[in-house]
From TrEMBL:
Keyword Nucleotide-binding in annotation: yes
Coiled-coil region list: none
Species in which this protein is naturally found: Methanoculleus bourgensis (strain ATCC 43281 / DSM 3045 / OCM 15 / MS2) (Methanogenium bourgense)
Protein name: Shikimate dehydrogenase (NADP(+))
Pathway note: Metabolic intermediate biosynthesis; chorismate biosynthesis; chorismate from D-erythrose 4-phosphate and phosphoenolpyruvate: step 5/7; Metabolic intermediate biosynthesis; chorismate biosynthesis; chorismate from D-erythrose 4-phosphate and phosphoenolpyruvate: step 4/7
Pfam families: SDH_C, Shikimate_dh_N, SKI
Length: 451
């Protein structure tokens, strides 16, 4: 490992573990808090008292940027990874370990410190609050997570150097599943390079997905030692089992598993729970965390149509994300599906109107969001014809293969404003990449990587 980075809350052992690792590896040790104090010419509590947290964070950003190409062990401050720019610098040709502990353990370890509080809360409550607030950033920025609560610094250092490892029985099961999935080469890659991390698109089918192209280019762009592949299989339980046998950091979940996958996830965030679908799984420390970024992929391109009258075609996981997004933009939403009963169930969850697809004609609508697989290659159908659409309507087709779907062609012929599914893919990918890696990317960079 060229660069080992230790992140986590105060009191999780970053400095102690970092010094042991540096000594064992005979490499330099960098403590970002110490470097900040040297640069400022005063201790951190004094920086906070004189100049405030913003000044401290600016110094922290400068110090971490200076370590981008460093070789050695880096121990970071507790809030360093809240800044995605810091994460990008720390991840550059480095391996990031999140050191964690229970709030009570942390509180006992840091009691009596002269570091100022970051909130007005009592110390024990502040620890719990900040841990919850930072968890998403901590998990995203990490390649691996180690609980230090009941371990000595030396034992934690052993785990960092040893890596996750895999038992002979698990290795046999892993290789058997990889062979079934047609991914034997991935097992060979991991045997040659145990430090490699894995991400994948999970679906059936998912051969059409552009996620492997996008992610592998982004990983190379940010100097990350990751490989993105496809887990295409008829049942999601087997996919999740395979992911658990690999050094998997994240999954992009697509049809037909966005709802079923929730049964196998340890924690689901509020947005995904409300939508009833997960399209992003983050894995760290043996636990899985479910999110939904599809709704943001729908919301961002339609933000300028706030308050519009909208129709969502479909009633599956993508449709649920679309309804959730449109409601967040104060739109009046009508859900239409081939089976009216499925439209009703979705609509009633969000307090919307509903009906069958045949009820589209005659509807006065400003925005149409198509959220079914119809029109996805090799399908050449469209649920709507040019005569069904009015000029000036905005038509957003969530299907992105091909880039111009039959529905988008029909909408253009009718004089509608169109939004291709690639825009949903781009905007949801921006958020998904942040959740999985802790790095912020722009829609422009994602588009560039897709060319």
């Amino acid at each position: 490992m060229k660069k080992i980075v230790l992140t986590g809350f105060r009191g999780t052992g970053k400095t102690s573990v970092g010094r042991i690792l540096a000594e064992r590896l005979q490499v330099p040790f960098f403590d970002t808090d110490t470097l900040i104090e040297r640069r400022a010419g005063m201790p951190i509590p004094e920086i906070f008292r004189r100049h405030g947290e913003a000044a401290f964070r600016a110094l922290e950003r400068e110090v971490i940027a200076s370590l981008r190409d460093a070789e050695g062990v880096i121990s970071t401050g507790g809030g360093a990874v809240l800044d995605p720019a810091n994460v990008a610098d720390l991840r550059w040709h480095g391996t990031v370990f999140l050191l964690s502990a229970e709030p009570g353990v942390i509180y006992e370890r840091i009691a009596g410190s002269d570091r100022p509080g970051l909130t007005d809360l009592p110390p024990a409550e502040e620890v719990q609050t900040l841990l919850a607030r930072r968890r998403e950033a901590y998990l995203g920025a990490a390649d691996a997570c180690i609980d230090t609560g009941s371990r000595t610094p030396g034992e934690v250092a052993d785990l960092v150097l040893r890596g996750a490892g895999i038992s002979p029985d698990d290795a046999h099961e892993r290789d058997t599943l990889l062979e079934r999935f047609g991914l034997s080469a991935l097992g060979e890659m991991l045997d040659r390079d145990p430090g490699l991390r894995v991400c994948a698109i999970a679906g059936n089918p998912c051969a059409h997905s552009r996620s492997p192209l996008l992610y592998n280019r982004l990983f190379a762009h940010f100097g990350m030692h990751y490989h993105y592949t496809r887990f295409e299989w008829p049942d999601v339980e087997t996919i999740i089992r395979l992911a658990s046998l690999l050094p998997t950091k994240g999954l992009s979940v697509t049809i037909p598993f966005k709802t079923d996958v929730m049964r196998y996830i340890d924690e689901v965030d509020d947005h995904a729970a409300a939508i009833g679908a997960v399209n992003t799984v983050v894995r760290c420390g043996g636990r899985t965390y479910g999110h939904n970024t599809d709704w943001l992929g729908v919301r961002a391109p339609l933000a300028h149509r706030r308050g519009a009258r909208a129709v969502v075609l479909g009633a599956g996981g993508a449709a649920a994300a679309a309804v959730y997004a449109l409601i967040s933009l104060d739109m009046d939403v009508l859900v239409l599906a081939r089976r009216p009963d499925t439209a009703r169930r979705l609509a009633e969850r969000f307090g919307c109107r509903w009906g069958g697809l045949d009820e589209f004609k005659g509807v006065d609508v400003d925005v149409v969001v198509h959220a079914t697989p119809v029109g996805m290659e090799p399908d050449t159908r469209s649920l709507l014809a040019p005569r069904d659409l009015e000029p000036g309507t905005t038509v957003f087709d969530l299907v992105y293969t091909p880039p111009e779907t039959p529905l988008i062609r029909a909408a253009k012929e009718a004089g509608c404003a169109t939004i291709p599914g690639t825009e949903m893919f781009v905007h949801q990918a921006v958020e998904q990449f942040r959740l999985i890696t802790g790095i912020a990317v722009t829609p422009a960079l994602v588009r560039e990587m897709l060319l």
